[in-house]
Please model this.
Amino acid sequence: MSNLFSITNIKTSPTATKDPTDKNQTENWRAIVRKYQQPSLSKGLWQLANTGVPYLGLWVLMYYTRHVSWPLTIALSSLAAMFLIRLFIIFHDCGHGSFFKSRKANQVAGFLIGIITFTPYRHWTWQHAVHHATSGNLSDRGSGDIWVMTVKEYLEAPRKTRILYKISRNPIILFIIAPVGLFSIYQRFPDSKASKRERISVLLMNLALVPYVVGMSLIFGFWDFFWIQLAIGFVAGGLGVWGFYVQHQFEDTYWRTEEEWDYETAALTGSSFYKLPAILNWFSGNIGYHHIHHLSSRIPNYNLQACHKAEPFFQQVPEITLWRSLKSLKLRLWDEDSKKLVGYEVLRNNKV
Model:
């Protein structure tokens, strides 16, 4: 693919002379990230306040505008969805044990936000930890990631599997239909590989959702609660899945077999630097600095940007702009020969 249509742009600063995959730099980056792994109680509490309070306020405002102007209510739902995404990033950090220094505080905050986001805290944390441990590993796919097939696998797959794969990678399915099902249905059931603790966490969350839904229904009315929650969740889910998708689905991402796979290289070259406008960085909790997050999940979201800027070494990673990220929608399969994510056009010379 030519540079014109490439969605990645590998930056090389005039002062950046280090190779992100150079093992001689391992101790160097470890020393750097350690400086940013310390949680801040004041930053954490302030982030909870400046995210949770506006979200609740917008929720109530939607209730009072529902019979006045539905277009206004829908507009408010989009803004509320952005705050819900930011809440989910806090939930995500709690799962990594990075948001607060106290393990108990992370668990309590994570569980409570889990109710608002309809997500079982321990179960999701376990699945996400598997994602971090196996990201980019072709020999260990399927847990906490988006379905990716290689060109060879696709060519050898039965017709039914190829159809299911195409459906699963369709943008309408990925970003509109699947997110609603993910948070309303899928999260209600434990994974077949989940341990007893994770299974119990799903049960506890389902039980906790009963008084939450009943209480909100008694205060606002069931149908008002349902439609407002659905409107917010619809937007937040779609944008959230998109954010997760683009963090690893770009042309020059990293996939290798178990024998070749390397954690540090996968983090720095298989996780994008999603260069977003400042306001979107704020709402997304700096998760666009995904290469830093995968390098060290112990860094809280409020320290990711500073860590990225601390060393030119970190700035030599795949960079994706908001506009260029849209081109990732046509990328579907991993080509093991070219070591790139490619579109279905690669199949034109094959009878599929």
Observations:
- Residues 218 and 225 are 9 Å apart (CA to CA).
